[in-house]
TrEMBL record:
Domain Glucose-methanol-choline oxidoreductase N-terminal: 202-297
Stated family: Belongs to the GMC oxidoreductase family.
A Pfam family recorded for this sequence: GMC_oxred_C
Keywords: FAD, Flavoprotein, Oxidoreductase
PANTHER family: PYRANOSE 2-OXIDASE
Cofactor: FAD
UniProt-recorded name of the protein: Choline dehydrogenase
């Protein structure tokens, strides 16, 4: 069998975007994806199926250090987690690339400045057809290109709250979103956050990056193919083979380049499980950093209720604010970002409050607006993914939690001032590893980081890792655009240095 030039492992934002970047080279590219396609089925828009019955949740367990199992919401399908994402495609702030003192701990500097990634941020925004508006958010970094589409409009009940917040001195901005709202609503009148997309208007890894890559005859996607091991050569350097399991059979390919993009947890797991005599701590791991620095954002759902407010919004998720992002608003430490959640219905609330009748929760929802508060989780060497035989162990050492509590407190005050006397909050925990990152980070020092600034493994010249595991910090914004931008940047680097 003819061997591919490049194997890409995983078709999420990292894998699909770099496939789009490399496809025009004509190189023979094989994408190996553990999952299958999300089909167009009624469950895709059925909130009881999604939230109450966990229809799409993989039946997988990860383990805490004490052996306690939990079921993580980590999705394995073509397009990866982006099939379910809230489609907020936002840049890190310029300051996020520099060392930042937080209430608890220091967020380290990136090995390069914002300006280095900026051109690829612009390309990623154009590629993913992001809708947005520059100039509303005082923390917005410089853009060399405007958004190609105007922002998704606020629904009237949301515009009302945006206006009240403005009047109270906050700076709400339109969330940059990868969603064609007319197409999405044409299928069914639901929000898109956490609802799977089957070519219904969400700009995800499958519908954008992968679709573009697969227009090229030199790119092939092989689904239901879970990579089980990467095998280095006798000297422990070059990756010689990629081993995977398809339909119960073990298969092997031997590409020239291997691009790992299985997600921040599974990429670390694969590297650790591929340990050999020359790489006893796992591949790419002479720094002993693979699996460490796991970050996942400190985040909470915050629901504001008023008997005099009526929320008839369908999707809701159109604005956010960064007034407490760089400081707490009074010269204190950075606290984080606030953005609207997709509209939380009674059916969604019931998943967390099973004993309350759904009609009662629908009444609450009719008078409520729902926010997502997100704070930076700072890298910590003991916050880590480990493997124990077939088991995946997650020891998440949350950092900077008091800053998150301050953010939630500030948000509650802002919402009360905006006319909501009752404000409830609930933190997200390890069962929601949606913003997982950091486990195979980039850095200038091979003793401190597994990857160089082009996401190439210091230990293996033909291995790149381009999913969210490369992120050296989590910042306090959604990760997907920063994963896509770096995948395009690394793709260009490979085109120039490896495939020219
Ligand atoms: C409900 C939800 C809402 C979110 N909302 C947002 C948002 O609004 N904005 C934002 O920026 N981010 C959001 N995120 C996070 C975002 O989806 C992720 O940051 C992004 O998808 C990460 O991309 P990735 O390439 O790192 O990995 P993934 O998307 O996890 O892709 C990894 C792929 O690799 C495959 N894979 C795994 N193991 C193997 C293996 N061994 N062999 C072969 N294939 C394998 C998986 O099946 C998957 O397709 C959200 C996530 C969730 C779950």
């Amino acid at each position: 069998m003819k061997q591919p030039d490049i194997v890409i492992i995983g078709s999420g934002i990292g894998g699909a975007t770099i496939a789009a970047a490399l496809a025009p080279s004509g190189a023979d590219i094989l994408l190996l994806e553990a999952g299958g396609h999300i089909e167009d089925r009624p469950e895709n828009r059925d909130q009881r199926a999604i939230f109450q019955r966990g229809h799409f949740r993989p039946k997988e367990f990860w383990y805490e250090m004490n052996g306690k199992p939990f079921n993580p919401g980590n999705y394995y399908n073509v397009g990866g987690n982006s099939k379910f994402f809230g489609a907020v495609m936002v840049r890190y702030r310029r300051e996020d690339f520099y060392e930042m003192q937080h209430l608890e701990g220091i967020s380290p500097a990136w090995p390069f400045a914002y300006e280095e990634l900026e051109p690829w941020y612009s390309r990623a925004e154009q590629l993913y057809q992001v809708r947005g508006q520059i100039g509303e958010d005082p923390t917005e970094p410089v853009h060399s290109q405007n958004y190609a589409f105007p922002p998704v409009p606020d629904e009237p009940s949301i515009a009302l709250v945006r206006e009240r917040m403005k009047q109270n001195g906050l700076h709400p901005y339109s969330l940059p979103l990868g969603i064609d709202i007319e197409r999405w609503l044409a299928k069914a009148k639901t929000p898109w956050d956490a609802h799977p997309n089957s070519f219904d208007g969400k700009m995800d890894a499958e519908t954008i990056g992968l679709a573009l890559a697969l227009q090229h005859p030199n790119v092939r996607l092989q689904t239901r193919s879970r990579v089980t091991r990467l095998q280095a050569g006798a000297d422990g350097k070059r990756i010689e083979t990629v081993q995977y399991r398809k339909d119960g059979a073990d298969e092997v390919v031997s590409p020239k380049l291997v691009i790992l993009a299985a997600g921040a947890v599974q990429s670390a797991v694969l590297l650790l499980r591929s340990a050999d005599g020359k790489n006893p701590k796992g591949l790419a791991n002479s720094s002993d950093q693979v699996g460490r620095n796991f970050m996942n954002h400190n985040s909470s759902a915050v629901i504001a209720v008023s008997p005099t407010y009526r929320n008839d919004a369908i999707y809701q998720k159109t604005f956010g604010f960064n007034d407490y992002y760089l400081t707490d608003g009074e010269g204190g430490p950075p606290l984080g970002n606030v953005q609207l959640l997709g509209r939380v219905s009674g059916a969604i609330l019931k998943a967390n409050m099973p004993s309350v009748p759904e009609w009662m929760l629908n009444q609450l929802s009719a008078h409520a607006i729902d926010f997502y508060a997100m704070s930076e989780d700072i890298p910590h060497a003991e916050s880590r993914i480990m493997v124990d035989g077939e088991r995946i162990l997650l020891q998440w050492v949350r950092t900077n939690w008091p800053a998150h509590l301050m953010l939630v407190k500030k948000l509650k005050q802002a919402l009360r001032a905006a006319g909501f006397p009752l404000v409830l909050s609930r933190p997200f925990d390890k069962r929601t590893p949606s913003h997982q990152c950091g486990t195979v980070r980039i850095g200038n020092d091979s003793a401190q980081a597994p990857l160089d600034i082009w996401c190439r493994a210091y230990d293996h010249p033909n291995l790149f890792v381009v999913d969210a595991s490369y992120l050296p910090t989590s910042a306090a914004v959604n990760p997907a655009l920063t994963v896509a931008a770096q995948a395009l940047r690394v793709g260009d680097h490979i085109l120039q240095k490896e495939l020219a």
